[in-house]
Design a protein that fits this description.
Distance between the termini: 24 Å
CATH class: Alpha Beta
Largest sheet: 5 strands, mixed
Helix content: 25-40%
Keywords: Hydrolase
Protein name: Palmitoyl-protein thioesterase 1-like
Pfam family, one: Palm_thioest
Strand order of the largest sheet: 1-2-3-4-7
InterPro entries: AB_hydrolase_fold
Number of strands: 7
Order of helices and strands: EHHEHEHHHHHEEEHHEH
CATH superfamily: Alpha/Beta hydrolase fold, catalytic domain
Strand content: 5-15%
CATH architecture: 3-Layer(aba) Sandwich
Length: about 250
């Protein structure tokens, strides 16, 4: 996750890089970023977020969960698992860190231990265990307002965005299903065809304000060629850079 309009140096990094991104629960990561953002003078009048992969959930947590924070203006999401992931990550045989945490996930993604020690467990949404996901998953059900008790503040804060730009990579092999980057997912409890965002209850019942953003021209759903996070310069100039300018468009 990168914050535009501020120099993010080492003392503003969250935790210890890759290890923290794996072993620190997402809500704890959000709390740390929240404290740091509120202490950066350059951000107090508003800033833009460009999120990459899992960092998009930290960024969205910053929007929804961080009280008394400076406003996020535009949020540009590259390959974010916004609706969850349905599969344990596939790791290279040479990536010892990934394999270690993938093994933990495989032992019981919704156990208290894994939820407290493996960050991706907070957005793993097994289609055939939807009710268990709602009851035991520590982060995404809250962030997406999927729980029975809805939080109107989360919706209000998302609808305060000037633009929400969601970018999916057509050959994404990390976020599964890849449509999760556009909030598309399987029907609740049914591991069948992926529903596009507009057919999900999250959208039709406007749980976090995506329908409101869409109806006011502020939600951009973009599909680009390429594997996870490999975006071309031309697509970056077309879909990312315009939203980092002070006069960023409201409509395309």
């Amino acid at each position: 996750m990168h914050m535009h309009k501020a120099k993010v140096d080492e003392d503003k990094e969250v935790g210890n890089g890759a290890i923290t991104s794996w072993d620190t629960p997402l809500e704890a990561q959000v709390e740390e970023v929240c404290r740091k953002v509120k202490a950066i003078p350059e951000l107090q009048n508003g800033y833009n977020i460009v999120g990459q992969s899992q960092g998009n959930l930290v960024g969205r947590g910053l929007v929804e969960l961080c009280d008394d924070a400076p406003p996020v203006i535009n949020f540009i999401s590259l390959g974010g698992p916004h609706a969850g992931v349905a599969f344990i990550p596939n790791c290279s045989q040479f990536d010892a860190l990934c394999n270690h945490y993938a093994a933990l996930l495989g032992r019981g993604v919704y156990t208290n231990y894994v939820q407290a020690h493996v960050a991706p467990s907070g957005y793993t949404k097994l289609p055939y265990d939807y009710l268990v996901y709602l009851a035991k998953c520590s982060f995404l059900p809250k962030l997406n307002n999927e729980l029975l008790q809805k939080n109107a503040t989360y919706k209000q804060r998302i609808t305060n965005l000037k633009n929400l730009v969601l970018i999916m990579f057509q050959e994404d092999g990390v976020v599964k299903p890849k449509e999760s980057s556009l909030f598309g997912y399987y029907a609740d409890g049914i591991p069948g065809p992926v529903l596009p965002l507009q057919q999900t209850r999250l959208y039709t019942e406007d749980w976090i304000g995506l329908r409101t953003l869409d109806e006011t021209g502020r939600l951009k759903l973009i599909s680009v060629p390429g594997v996870h996070l490999l975006i071309s310069l031309s697509d970056t100039m077309r879909y990312v850079v315009p939203y980092l300018k002070d006069d960023a468009p409201v409509k395309p």
